[in-house]
Each structure stands twice: as structure tokens, then as C-alpha cells.
Design a protein that fits this description.
heterodimer, A: about 280 residues, alpha/beta, Rossmann fold, 4-stranded antiparallel sheet, globular, B: about 350 residues, D-Maltodextrin-Binding Protein, domain 2, 2 domains, 16 helices, about 10% strand, binds adenosine-5'-triphosphate, binds magnesium ion
């Protein structure tokens, strides 16, 4: 469906690349995750894919068509949700959707139905300036699917949402996937990536270090961890240690020998731990 | 078309809630009322009287010399004309004598109202007749012909200026604030990933500015000179005047990522563009470089539309200048926005 080949982008037009030799392929109907810390180049990649940034170097193929200069047909088939809630604050929720719907040449969804879907039906008549941050984000999310996109770009769709709302959004994403939508999802939240994505790419400093399914990653890097709680100088301490790493094993040994152990559990590695292990970087820095 | 209509509707909804919109809408009312009730129909500046008299008259009618004590005495009619060109607030009287009659010729600048002229003429006649010794042969009037605003009351002369300030200069500010609200709220990005074209996006804003310009002009004219066929002519010029002003605002806004940086240049541009307004008010100040500014033909053509002097070619040529420069600026801003859509 989408093939990206040796994509580069520099905002300063020099060797300082925000996106550095990025290549990946997204299958039709797949949810492809872009996982990386802040400043990794996720939004930059999405902006190139959606035609907001010019293509400096590399190729992007969508359904076999080179989209160096995306045309109307392409924009009619994509939907884009932004990191920052960019709506007309002086218009109501429903006016925002109605306006955006009219921009398309293809059939669009009913604004009111979309608002109901994201639980904004009651607030639809209110000015967007009176919306809370989470409401604005749901509005942008709803707007991004108004043209029933075949390819859906989601930049941090659940960041800043409460758990209940976040799972509502996640449910909509899975539902869309079942209907055949191809989804490019950008996030620095490993749970979202783990839960939703068929495959994830780890991206740091503009470079992709690995692409695989969360399941495969866990099998491959899936060493087990031990969470140990112990008392040290009267304080309860918690430590999470690998049972494979030499350094961690030594530490565990030290704890067991010297302190009063309270509890001890084994768990699977999280995607974040795998991320740290592969890239040497955390997701939240 | 469906898309353009939606864009336009959005601009009206969003634009009319912009605080600048209120200023743009209140200004014409204020200007109209100003013209109507505050600015006098005539300006009362100190008028300088210039006289020239034959030597013979000076001897025979020394009383006349006394009567014109405060006047500036010059040698000849041509000297008076030269002096008048340097002082707009002056008129001249030339006294000549042949055989037994004294002739007086009053030279006006050309802008004086009939009321003003009558006053001057009456006083000259009175002075000549104060002594019956010599025959008096009436008073002749001529005009310097440097400018001829004839009998338009002073307050109404300002109407074309205010109309230029409305669509061209205020539109420049308003379109800039609208563009920056799109840039700062990043709504322009949502448009950027839709099938809509930048040209439609910008054109809809230009059209909105035009509509405001027409509305403002209607208010000003209704309060002052009245709405007649001249209004339609002015609207015809306004189409292009507005294209020029709004496109300039668009182009300037395209180079900056914040309104505060852009506003400096918007203000500078509007100040430079208002120089021709000064030339219009003070006809003695009209350097050639002023005339290349589009506000110059804009002003004179609107003036011609409201106060026809028979020189209607100025309307055509000014529409041409405004259309060409406006279109050029618009194309440049489309190119510029295509490049800078997501910057900043
Ligand atoms: N408009 C811009 N001009 C210049 N540099 C930029 C611009 N936008 C992003 N960058 C830089 O490019 C790099 C990648 O940024 P990008 O926004 O793609 O990261 P991201 O992965 O989306 O991060 P986040 O998780 O914070 O959204 C960063 O170093 C950033 O500072
Ligand atoms: Mg980002």
C-alpha cells in the first residue's frame, strides 16, 4: 500500500537531518506504528507523507503511484489527525466538521454521527473555544475521518486523554481497521503501540532502528524480568531487573543476600524496555 | 464551487468574530460622521493677498494702496502667478489702467468655492468704487488653473481619501490578522491535507475583504455624498483596489511566522501607501515618485467617480494599474504560501 524509500528531510537544508534515511512499507489494512521519543522525527515523517512538507530526498509510493507532488485524488483518500488540536476556535464543533466536509470531492460522513462517536454530541453546538483540551483532541480526531479515508494518519491520537476516552478512541481505530482502513500511527506511548499496532518501527534521531510486530519483538527480546520489593535502611525499595543481563543478575544477587525481601514477581518485558534495549534511549526523555 | 462557498462562509463566520472586524466596520461610520458634522465645509486658513498695480494707479489712487495695506505687492501679473504657485492659500489682484478706466483682475487658485469668490470680488469692487473720480470697468476673474477642485466643499473632498483608507489600507490589516489566526491555530494545516487549493483559500479571503470594502464605502458615501450611480463606479474601482490591498497583506503575511513581526511591515506599507493621500490634500506636494504608488491612481479615480470632471480616462487607467499590480501580488502570495505552508 505505502512504500517509503530512503527518505531524508532537513529543515535547515543541510546535513542536519530530522528524518535520516527512513525506509518502511505499510501493508493494506495494517496499523503501522511509529514509536519514538520526542523529537525523533515522527511528525516530520507524517508531514512528508501527507504532503505538508516538501519531499527533499527519497521516494514515496502509494498504490504504485509516486506521490512526489500529491494531487487531489490523494488528498481525497487520506485523513489526518494532528498532534495539536487545530480547529477554528470561533466556530462550533459541528461548524468545524461541516466546513471540513465541504472541502472533499468524495462522500463524507454526517458530522453529527461523528460527534456522537467521539462522545461530543452534546457539545457540538458549543464554540470550540469553550472546549477542553481533551474535547478539542476528539474533535480533531473526528474531523480526520470525515472523508472516510482509506489511509489514516494519526499523530498521538490519545495523548492527554483520560483512560475511558482513550479506550473509546482505540475502539474506533480498531473498528476502522476491520473495515479495511490502513493506519499510520505516531506515538511515544508504548501501551498504545503494543495494543493497537500490527507492526511498529522504533525511531530515534530520525533513524529507524527496527521494524517488527510487538509479538515478535517480545519473543525476540522477551527475556523475563523480576520485580523485587525489599527493605533498605527502613525504606521500601522497588527494583526491576533482567534475569538475563549479567549486571542485573549480580544486582539481584546482592539484594537477595543483603536485604529483607518483601515480594518478588516475574513479568514479561514491556515494549518500552525493548525500546531502551534496542535504541539505548528511553521513550520519555 | 461548493468548496469556495464553504470557504467564504467560514471566512465570514470567523472573520466577523475577529476584534479587528469591529474596527473595520466602525471606522466608516466614524469617518462618515466626521465628514458630516465635524469637518467644516471650508477651511479658514490665513489667506495671503498678492497685488500688482501700474505705477500710474499708485500715484493717482494712493488710497487703494492704503486699502491693501496687508497685501503683498509684486511687480507684475506673472510675478503674482509664480508666487501663487508656491502658496496654495493665496489669491492675486492685478490693477491696470487704460485711458480713464481701472481694470481689476482677480486670480484664484481654482479650488475656491463660489461663496469665497463672491466675497473677494465684492470687496474689490467696493474698494475701486470708493472714489468716483475714475471710471471702473468691472472686475475680471481668472484662475491659476493649477488645480481645479472648483466648488466641492472641503469636507466632501475628504470622502475619496476615506474610501481609499477603507478597502486598501484597513483590508491590509484585517487580512493579515485572519491569515495569522490560521497560521497560529494551525488550521491552515488541516486545509493543507484536504483537496482544497491554496488559491481558493486565499481568494475567499480577498473576496471577504472586498465585501467589507463595499460595505464600508456604502456607509461612508451614504452619510456624505449620497448613493447614486457614482457608488457603482466606485465599487467597480474597489474590486481592483481591494485586490491590490488584500494581496499585499497576504504577501507580507506569508514571509513571517508571527503577527507581531509582520505587523511592522504592514504598518510601514500602509504608511508609504498613504503618501499619495497627502499629495491629494496639498496639491503643491506631488513628486513623481508618488504617482507610481497604486494608491495614487486609486485615489484620483475614486475622486473622479464621485466628482466627475470629465477626465474619465483616469478611471480606466487606474483600474488597469490596480488590476495588474493586484494580480501580480496575488500570484506571488499563492507561490509563497505553497512554499511556507508548515513553516513555523
Ligand atoms: N518546523 C520546524 N523547523 C525546524 N525544525 C523542526 C521543525 N519541526 C521539527 N523540527 C525538528 O525536527 C526534529 C524532529 O521533530 P518532529 O516534530 O518530527 O519529532 P516528533 O518525533 O514528532 O516529536 P514529538 O513526539 O515531540 O511530537 C526535532 O529535532 C525538531 O526540533
Ligand atoms: Mg510529533
Amino acid at each position: 500500500m505505502i512504500q517509503v524509500n530512503q527518505l531524508y528531510h532537513s529543515y535547515k537544508h543541510n546535513k542536519d537531518y530530522a528524518v535520516n534515511n527512513v525506509s518502511f512499507e505499510i501493508q493494506e489494512g495494517e496499523i503501522f506504528g511509529f514509536l519514538g521519543p520526542s523529537g525523533a522525527g515522527k511528525s516530520t515523517t507524517q508531514n512528508i507523507l501527507t504532503g505538508l512538507l516538501p519531499m527533499q530526498k527519497g521516494t514515496i509510493n502509494v498504490n504504485g503511484l509516486d506521490i512526489k507532488k500529491p494531487n487531489r485524488d490523494y488528498f481525497n483518500t487520506i485523513g489526518v489527525s494532528f498532534e495539536r488540536a487545530n480547529v477554528y476556535k470561533k466556530l462550533t464543533g459541528i461548524q468545524n466538521l461541516e466546513f471540513h466536509a465541504k472541502m472533499y470531492d468524495v462522500e463524507t460522513d454526517d458530522p453529527m454521527k461523528l460527534l456522537e462517536k467521539v462522545d461530543l454530541a452534546d457539545a457540538g453546538g458549543k464554540k470550540a473555544s469553550d472546549f477542553s483540551k481533551g474535547m478539542l483532541q476528539r474533535l480533531v480526531f473526528a474531523r480526520s475521518m470525515i472523508n472516510k479515508p482509506k489511509i489514516w494518519f494519526l499523530d498521538e491520537p490519545t495523548s492527554g486523554l483520560d483512560p475511558a476516552t482513550a479506550s473509546r478512541i482505540k475502539a474506533i481505530i480498531t473498528e476502522k481497521q476491520k473495515k479495511g482502513t490502513t493506519i499510520f500511527l505516531t506515538t511515544h506511548n508504548m501501551y498504545i503501540a503494543d495494543e493497537l499496532c500490527d507492526r511498529v518501527a522504533f525511531i530515534v534521531d530520525g533513524k529507524i532502528s527496527l521494524i517488527d510486530s510487538p509479538r515478535n519483538l517480545k519473543i525476540k527480546y522477551g527475556e523475563r524480568f523480576i520485580t523485587v520489593e525489599y527493605i533498605k535502611k527502613g525504606n521500601l525499595m522497588t527494583e526491576r531487573l533482567s534475569i538475563v543481563e549479567q549486571k542485573d543478575k549480580a544486582k539481584l544477587n546482592h539484594i537477595v543476600n543483603n536485604y529483607d525481601i518483601q515480594t518478588m514477581h516475574t513479568n514479561e518485558a514491556t515494549l518500552e524496555e525493548i525500546f531502551i534495549k534496542v535504541t539505548g534511549r528511553g521513550l520519555l526523555e | 464551487m461548493k468548496r469556495f462557498f464553504a470557504l467564504f462562509k467560514r471566512d465570514m463566520l470567523v472573520g466577523s468574530k475577529n476584534y479587528f472586524f469591529i474596527i473595520v466596520m466602525l471606522t466608516p461610520i466614524l469617518l462618515g460622521l466626521l465628514v458630516r458634522f465635524v469637518i467644516p465645509e471650508e477651511t479658514s486658513t490665513q489667506v495671503q493677498v498678492l497685488i500688482a498695480m501700474d505705477e500710474q494707479i499708485k500715484e493717482e489712487r494712493s488710497d487703494l494702496l492704503h486699502l491693501y495695506d496687508g497685501a503683498n505687492q509684486l511687480d507684475s501679473k506673472s510675478a503674482i502667478q509664480e508666487a501663487m504657485k508656491k502658496d496654495v492659500n493665496s489669491y492675486g489682484i492685478v490693477f491696470t489702467k487704460d485711458n480713464e478706466s481701472i481694470h481689476a483682475e482677480v486670480i484664484f487658485q481654482g479650488y475656491e468655492s463660489q461663496k469665497q469668490r463672491n466675497l473677494v470680488l465684492q470687496s474689490v469692487e467696493m474698494m475701486l468704487n470708493s472714489d468716483q473720480v475714475m471710471q471702473v470697468d468691472g472686475v475680471k476673474t481668472t484662475e491659476l488653473g493649477q488645480y481645479s477642485k472648483t466648488t466641492i466643499p472641503f469636507n466632501l473632498q475628504l470622502v475619496p481619501i476615506f474610501i481609499v483608507m477603507e478597502p486598501a489600507l484597513l483590508g491590509l490589516f484585517l487580512i493579515a490578522t485572519m491569515i495569522f489566526s490560521e497560521k497560529e491555530e494551525k488550521t491552515i494545516l488541516a486545509y493543507g491535507v484536504s483537496p482544497g487549493k491554496i488559491t481558493e483559500f486565499l481568494l475567499s479571503k480577498v473576496l471577504f475583504m472586498f465585501l467589507l470594502g463595499v460595505l464600508g464605502t456604502f456607509v461612508i458615501m451614504a452619510l456624505t455624498v449620497g448613493i447614486g450611480t457614482s457608488f457603482l463606479k466606485v465599487v467597480g474601482i474597489l474590486v481592483f483596489a481591494n485586490l491590490f490591498g488584500a494581496s499585499l497583506g497576504l504577501l507580507i503575511s506569508s514571509f513571517f511566522d508571527s503577527i507581531s513581526k509582520a505587523m511592522i511591515w504592514v504598518v510601514v506599507a500602509s504608511m508609504v501607501l498613504s503618501f499619495p493621500l497627502v499629495a491629494f490634500m496639498i496639491p503643491t506636494f506631488a513628486p513623481a515618485w508618488l504617482k507610481i504608488m497604486p494608491t495614487y491612481p486609486m485615489l484620483y479615480s475614486i475622486n473622479e467617480a464621485i466628482f466627475p470632471s470629465g477626465n474619465s480616462t483616469i478611471i480606466g487607467s487606474s483600474i488597469l494599474i490596480l488590476a495588474v499590480s493586484g494580480l501580480l501580488l496575488f500570484i506571488l502570495s499563492v507561490v509563497s504560501y505553497k512554499k511556507t505552508l508548515v513553516r513555523g
